[in-house]
Amino acid sequence: MYHIQLPEPIPMIEYIFFDAALRDKFVKYAEQQGVPCTASEDSMGLVVAIPEDIPESVSDEIEGYYDALEQEQEDLSRTEGDLKRLAGFRFNLPNGESRMLPLQTNLANRLLAHFSLQEIQALFDAVADCTLNPQDEHLCKILAAREQKN
Questions:
Q1: What residues are paired with 100 via a beta bridge?
Q2: Mean pLDDT of 44-53
Q3: What is the pTM of this model?
Q4: In terms of Cα–Cα distance, which of 90, 61, 78, 77 is closest to 18?
């Protein structure tokens, strides 16, 4: 019997778009920065994924560009007859499956104002793990167990 070890999946940051032209502008910008990306469509919209392990300065530039494109999307939705805006964050289940959490736009904007996409995804990943693998312990017991490990 052969045991084949598959490579670990590369952690990705995903950006969602509701307009193909804006998505294409983002892809072109990311590629100009030397960042490979993949584009796909899912039930939430048009998704572009880039690797998480890019330099922070490049990541900041890409996030800034995405913010500008979000403003363009908002402007488009106002001029195109009050389109409803959706916001969503992708997170991972402990088994590696990926899910999208739809949120009200104002809540998503509040999160993004204070946390990076990586921090938000880590938070949602932790909630998914805790939900599927509950530990009914008090925080003081969890802290004591962590201190013993260190």
A1: 90
A2: 84
A3: 0.51
A4: 77
